[in-house]
Amino acid sequence: MLRLDAVTVRYTPGGVAAVDNLHLTVEPGERVALVGPSGAGKSSILAVANGLMLPSSGTAEVFGVDTAALSRREHRATRRRIGTVHQDFALVGSLRVIHNVAAGRLGTWGPLRALRSLVRPTDRDEIHAVLERVGIPEKLWYRTDQLSGGQQQRVAIARVLFQQPDLLLADEPVSSLDPTRSKSVLDVLVEACEADPARALITSIHDAPLALSHFTRIVGLRDGQTVFDEPTRVVTPEMLDRLYAFEDTPFDP
Amino acid sequence: MTIETVAPTDTPTRTPTPTSTGRRRRGWAAIIVVLVIWSTQRAGVNLPDLINPRGWGQVRSFFAAMVRPDLSPDFLRLTVEETAVTLSYALLGTALSVAIGILGGPLLSERLWRPLAGEPTTRARWGWRLARFTFAVPRSMHEVVFGLILLNILGLDPLVAVLAIGVPFGAVTAKVFSELIDEVPSDAERAMRAAGAGRLTAMIFGVVPTALGDLLSYAFYRFECAIRSAAVLGIVGAGGLGFQLALSFQSLRYDQMWTLLWALIAVGGMADWWSSSVRRRRSDSGPDLSAGEGASHSLERDPFLVASAAGGALMIPVAWWWLDLSLSSLWSPRTRRLGAELAGDAWPPQVGPGGWRSLIADAADTVALAMLALALAWTFASALAFLAARRKRVPGGPALLPGRTLSWLSRFVLLIARSVPPPVWALLAVFVFLPGLWPGVVALAIYQFGVLGRLEGEVVENLDDRPGRALRAAGASRSGAIAYATLPAVSTRFVALGLYRWEVTIRDTVIVGVVGAAGLGQRISEQTSSFDYQGILASIAVLVVLTVAADIASAAIRRTLR
C-alpha cells in the first residue's frame, strides 16, 4: 500500500534532514500511529506519502508503484485514492461547509462540474450524512471561517470521509478537540478504515492513550529516524514516555 | 510540530542588505532627478518663447462659462442622452474587462504553472512567460489606440468604445487578478490537488472564491477609470459626451461645453464615491479565522456590497439595450475584409519619412512629456493630499489637519482636474502655450494631479493619525506635526504611487498627442490622418516598448522602497 525505501527529506539542500534514511511499509487493513516529539518527521512522512513533497533521496511507492515514474494523469488517478486530514485543515474559509466537504471529490470532477457545484451544490444528502458522522450536521450551510477551530477540524475530516480514499492520512487530526470529541473522531476514522479491508490509516498523534486504543501498529520517531516500530499490543506506555522524555535531557544542568 | 507540510517551493532569493538597498535607492533617485532636468531642457524654459499672451482671453472666457452652462431644454436632453451613452460604454467595457480578467487571471498566475511538489518544468516556465507576454502587449496600448484601430475596421459602431475599453482594461484586470490569486494562501488548493483534483478545478474551488471579493472591488475602481476613458474615446470619434465636447469645442461654445463637463464631473464624482465606498468596506472586512461566529464582515453579508454588485450586473442588459449593441458586426464579411486589409496595409511596420532619427526624437519627446507631467502632478498632488483627505471625527484635542471646508474644496478641485478629459485640457493649453511639449505637459499634469491627489488622499485617510495628534496635543504646530508624524509615514507610499503612475502616464501621452501635443501620440495621429498604417504600427511598437520599460523600471524602484 505504502512503501518508503531509504527516504530522506531535506527542506534546504544540505540542511538538516527532517526524515533520515527511513524505511516504512504499510499494508492494507493496518492502522498506523506515528508518534514522537515535534520535529520528529511525522508531518514530512505524511507529505511524502500524499505527494505534497518529493523525497530528497530514496523512493516512495504508493499502491505498488513509484510515484516519480508516473505520468501526470496516472499521478492524479493515484492521488484520488489518497485522502489527507491536514494539520492546518487546508479549508477555504470563504466557502460554505457544504462546498468544503464536496471538495473531497474534486479529483473525479472536471472544472465545469466544479463550477456548477459552486452555484448549486450536489450530493447534499450524502454530505449531510457525513457531517452527522463527525457531529456537526447543523453547520452544513455555514461559512467555514465562522466555525471554531474544533469544528473546522471536523469539516476537514468530513471532507476526507466524503472522498472515500483507500489510503487515509491524518496529520494530528484531534489536536484542536477535547478528549471526548477526540475519541469520537478517531472512532469515525477507524470505522471508515474498517469499512473496507483494502484501506489503511496512517495518523500522526501526540496522545498516547488514544494511540494505544485506536491503532494496530505504532511507529515511534525521533529526529527523522525510527526508534521503534511494533504492533500495539507490545507497546507499553513507558516506551512512549521515554520517546518524549528524551527531549528534556539537554536541559539538565 | 515545527515543520510544515508545505515545502518552501520558492527558490531562495538573495536578501538585499540595508546598505545596498539604500545605495540602490539613492542611485534611482539620482537617475530620476537627471531625467527630470533633461526633460525640462528638452521642453524649454525660456518663457517668452513658450507663452502666447493673447491666448489668455480664450482661457478666461472658458472658465467664465463654468458658472453659466447652456441649460436650454434641448441641450439638456442631449446631455442626458449622451451621458447615458458614456455610462453604458464604461459599464459594458468594465464588464468585458472583468470577464477577460476572470478567464486570464488564473492563466497568468504563477500558481497554475507550478507542480504540486518540486520545481516547475521548463515547459511550464515558458508557458507562463508566453501567457504574461500575450497580456503585456494589450496592457501597454492605450484605449485610444485601440479605438483608432477599431474605428477603421468597425466604423461608427458602439462596439468600438466597448472593445477599446474592455480589451486593455481586461489585460490589466487579468494581471491584477493573477496577483490576487498568487496571494491567496495555498494550503487548501494544494490539499485539493493532493487529493487528485486538476489544477484548474483546484483553483476554481480553492482559490477563486477567496480572491473574488477583492477582484470585485477592483472592478469598481476599473469602472471609475472606464468613465474617464469613455469620455476620451468620444473625443476621437466614438460618440457619447466626449464626442459632443469635441463638437462644442470646434464651434467654441464654451457654455455648451460646461453643460457636458458638469455632467461628466457629476457622473465621475458619483463613480468615484461608489468605488471608494466599496473599497473602504472591503478593507474593513476580510475573514478572521480567530474570531467567533458573526464576526467577519463578508461580501455576501454587507447589503451595500451585495446591492452594488447586483446593481452593476443588472445595469449591463440596460446599457446593452440603450446602445442597441449588436455583436453581428464582429464577424460580418465587411469587418473581415476591412480587418484583413488593415493588417495587410500595416505589415510590415515601417519607420516612415524622417527615418529613425525622427522616430527616436518623438520617443524622447514622449518620455520627457511624461516625466515632466508626472513630476509636476506628483508635487502638487502630494501637497494637496493632506488638505483633501477626508476628516476623521476626532474625540477632542487639536485636530491634525485643517477644517472640513478646505477638504471639500480640495477634493472638488481634484475631481474637476481628473473629470475634464485631458484632450480638453490640452486644447486649452494650446491657446496659452506655443506649440511644443508644454501644452501636453500641462494637460497631462492637471489630469494626473487629479488622479494622484485622490489616491494619495486615500493613503492619508488610512493612516494612523494618533502620533500626529499626540504631537499637536503636546503643543506642536500643525505643520510641525505633519512634518514629524505624517510625512515620514506616507512618503514611501506617495513615491510608490507616483512610480506606479509612471507607466500609465507614458501610455496616456497618446491622448494629448491626438490633439497635436508632440511626441509619439502626435505622430500616431498624423499617421492616422495620412493612412500610414505601417508607420502607425512602428509608432505603436515603440510606445509599447517604452511603456514596458517604464513598468519594469518602476517595479525595480518600488522594490527598493520596501
What secondary-structure arrangement, pairings included, does this model have?
The complex is a heterodimer of chains A (253) and B (562).
Chain A: E1 2-10, E2 17-26, E3 31-35, H1 42-50, E4 57-62, E5 65-66, H2 72-79, E6 82-85, H3 97-102, H4 111-119, H5 124-134, H6 149-163, E7 167-171, H7 179-194, E8 200-204, H8 208-214, E9 217-222, E10 225-231, H9 237-245
Parallel strand pairs in A: 3-8, 3-9, 6-7, 7-8
Antiparallel strand pairs in A: 1-2, 1-4, 4-5, 9-10
Helix pairs in contact in A: 5-6
Chain B: H1 18-43, H2 47-50, H3 56-64, H4 73-108, H5 110-113, H6 122-139, H7 143-154, H8 158-183, H9 187-194, H10 199-206, H11 208-238, H12 241-250, H13 254-284, H14 303-323, H15 333-346, H16 355-388, H17 404-419, H18 422-432, H19 438-461, H20 466-473, H21 478-513, H22 519-529, H23 533-561
Helix pairs in contact in B: 1-16, 3-18, 4-8, 4-11, 4-13, 4-14, 6-8, 7-8, 7-11, 8-11, 9-10, 11-12, 11-13, 12-13, 16-17, 16-19, 16-21, 16-22, 17-19, 18-19, 19-21, 20-21, 21-22, 21-23, 22-23
| Name of the CATH superfamily of the largest domain in chain B | MetI-like
Tell me which CATH architecture of the largest domain in chain B applies here. Answer: Orthogonal Bundle
Q: What oligomeric state is this?
A: heterodimer
Q: Encode the helix/strand succession of chain B as letters.
A: HHHHHHHHHHHHHHHHHHHHHHH
Helix fraction of chain A, binned, reads: 25-40%
As residue ranges, the low-confidence spans of chain B are 1-13, 285-299
Cα-atom radius of gyration of chain A? 18 Å
CATH topology-level name of the largest domain in chain A: Rossmann fold
State the major sheet of chain B.
none
Estimate the strand proportion of chain A: 15-25%
Q: What's the CATH topology name of the largest domain in chain B?
A: MetI-like fold
Strand order of the largest sheet of chain A: 6-7-8-3-9-10
Full CATH superfamily name of the largest domain in chain A: P-loop containing nucleotide triphosphate hydrolases
Q: Shape of chain B, please?
A: globular
SS class of chain A: alpha/beta
